[in-house]
Amino acid sequence: MQRVALDIEDPDLLDRVGTMLASEPNRVALDARDPDVVIADHLPVREEIPTIVLEAPGNALAVLNAGASGVLPRNVTLSDLLLAMNAVARGFSILPREVRSPELPDGTLNRLSDNPNDVPRGYALTVREFEVLRLLAEGASNKVIARRLGISFHTAKFHVASIAAKLDATGRTDAVAQAVRLGLILL
Fold first, then answer.
1. What is the DSSP letter of 120?
2. Residue range 140-163: average pLDDT?
3. How far apart are CA 102 and CA 17, in angstroms?
4. How are beta strands 2-7 and 37-40 bridged, if at all?
5. Does the pTM exceed 0.85?
6. Which of 3, 108, 148, 158 could form a disulfide with 104 if both were Cys (CB 3.0 to 4.6 A apart)?
7. CA distances from 73 to 26, 43, 131, 145, 185 (A)
């Protein structure tokens, strides 16, 4: 069971989120004293506890940079909220799909540490590898990756292997997990 604190100032939003979470008594316990996750609608956030901020997508990157673990739209569904709570409690960052960063391909974030020891050896993904990584995160097979990017199956397979090697991953699933940990992609 996950302990959740609500730090929501908007009374209508507080009522809606509280009602949603109260409908899941076997999965969620509202606990403001010792929460696993905080759900808020404003900054600042307590960085020591994973916090999901319910905010407009246009502000999502700024909210993450301010210390939040995740950003979801204010009209979030219960299933998306439960999924996000589990993800941030495990150390992942969450952004709405519609958030895109113009500097990086398809909304990936460059939140790598300044410490070179935190970056796997040989790290230097190409734009094409970022495209493949994004499709891997969606669960696409090599065949689907090849079709969607207009490349051969063998080229897709090569890119997946190259990504895994550059991220020091044991396979495609681990490559996605490593990329999330490094902040290269968000789920």
1. P
2. 92
3. 32
4. parallel
5. no
6. 108
7. 25, 15, 25, 29, 19
Q: What is the CA radius of gyration of the chain?
A: 18
Q: Which of 10-19, 68-77, 78-87, 114-123 has the lowest mean pLDDT?
A: 114-123
Distance separating the N- and C-terminal Cα atoms of the chain: 22
Give me the pLDDT at residue 93, please: 81
More confident residue, 59 or 150: 150
CATH fold of 105-182, please? Arc Repressor Mutant, subunit A (1.10.10)
SS3 61: helix
Spell out the CATH class of 2-89.
alpha beta
Which pLDDT does position 99 carry in this prediction? 59
**Cβ–Cβ < 8 Å for 71, 53:** yes
User: What is the C-alpha to C-alpha distance for residues 129 and 139, in angstroms, rounded to an integer?
Assistant: 15
**Residue ranges of the domains in the chain?**
2-89, 105-182
37, 56, 58, 39: which is closest to 48 by C-alpha? 37
In angstroms, the CA 77 to CA 114 distance is 36
